[in-house]
Amino acid sequence: MSDYTRYLMIWTPQGLDWLWILLVVLLIFGRRLPEVARSLGKSLTEFKKGVREAQETKDDLADDVKKVKDDVVNQAKDAGGLNELDNKD
Q1: Residue 71: predicted pLDDT
Q2: Are 16 and 23 in contact (CB under 8 A)?
Q3: 89 residues of the chain, pLDDT tens digit each
Q4: What are the helix (H) ranges across the chain?
Q5: What is the CA radius of gyration of the chain?
Q6: Is the Cα dihedral 48, 52, 54, 55 positive or negative?
Q7: What is the distance between the alpha carbons of residues 34 and 77, in angstroms, rounded to a whole number?
Q8: Are the CB atoms for 75 and 83 separated by under 8 Å?
């Protein structure tokens, strides 16, 4: 493997490379850059909103599962007569 190939495999932009990348981006997007930035901002907002909704749904589901578990445990205790023993103490 040549040194050039090894360089390409592990290349990450640094310093002056970022300036060249920025120049190319400006040349490509130029006039549309504000529109692209606005669109990116809206997309990020929607993504965060989706993540928040997913977290709320997960929390609600976990609460429902806990309630069902508690109901099943209580029904099992009632069926086995264990709740009556707990109340006598």
Answers
A1: 93
A2: no
A3: 567 666 666 667 778 888 998 898 888 888 888 888 899 999 999 999 999 999 999 999 999 999 999 999 988 888 887 766 555 55
A4: 3-9, 16-29, 33-80, 82-88
A5: 30
A6: positive
A7: 64
A8: no
From residue 43, how far is each of 32, 34, 40, 77, 87 by CA, in Å? 16, 14, 5, 51, 56
Residue spans of beta strands (DSSP E) within 1-89? none
Tokens of 13: 């932009």
Compute the Cα dihedral for 77, 83, 84, 85 and give only its sign: positive
Q: What is the pTM of this model?
A: 0.49
Tokens of 85: 């023993």
Residue type, 72: V
The domain in which residue 63 lies consists of 3-88
Tally of domains within the chain? 1
